[in-house]
Write a structure and sequence with these properties.
By secondary structure, the chain is of the alpha+beta class. The chain has five helices and five strands; from the N terminus they run H-H-H-H-E-E-E-E-E-H. The chain has one domain. 30% of the residues lie in helices and 13% in strands. The strands form two sheets. Strands 3-4-5 form a three-stranded antiparallel beta sheet. Strands 1-2 form a two-stranded antiparallel ribbon.
């Protein structure tokens, strides 16, 4: 099955361009925002979270080193590690400058994360849905360019 076919199956028959469908609250399922707004929110996290009311203890829990053994996620079917609901870098999907980063992918290929080590809030959204669980080629090219511009080698 091609990646775009899987994305169509996951999205089902919902017209995500219909505003009434976007107004329905689906927990952990239909966050909607511009790349600028999502990156801005993650930027506040990357700066320590105080602007959002995040305590140092919560930031420490978000950025704590993941366990040595990363278990296979029962839903995603791949090794993954989450902290307080956010995806963390794992072998095979090291998306930031260190293991302290956290974020979340979205359906269609979108992705956003905070990288506290380089104080980066990042987001990619698209206008054509496709499905890659990680490293969507469209998003990955942008992420790689950002880290090249920062002169930082991704983790």
């Amino acid at each position: 099955m091609a990646p775009h076919d899987l994305g169509t199956q996951l999205a089902g028959y919902v017209d995500w361009n219909n505003r009434s469908n976007l107004e329905v609250e689906v927990p952990a399922g239909n966050g909607v925002g511009t790349a600028r707004a999502i990156a801005r929110a993650y930027s506040a996290f990357a700066e320590g979270g105080a602007e959002l009311g995040i305590t140092p203890d919560t930031m420490a829990r978000l950025t704590a080193p993941p366990p040595t053994a990363v278990a296979k996620d029962e839903v995603l079917g791949v090794p993954s590690y989450f902290a307080l609901g956010y995806l963390r870098p794992v072998p095979g999907f090291a998306f930031a400058s260190s293991a302290r980063a956290f974020g979340t992918p979205g359906v269609g290929g979108s992705f956003g994360f905070a990288d506290p080590d380089v104080r980066l809030g990042y987001a990619y959204v698209m206008n054509k849905m496709c499905y890659y669980l990680n490293d969507d080629p469209r998003e990955k090219a942008l992420r790689d360019a950002v880290y090249r511009a920062l002169r930082v080698t991704p983790y």
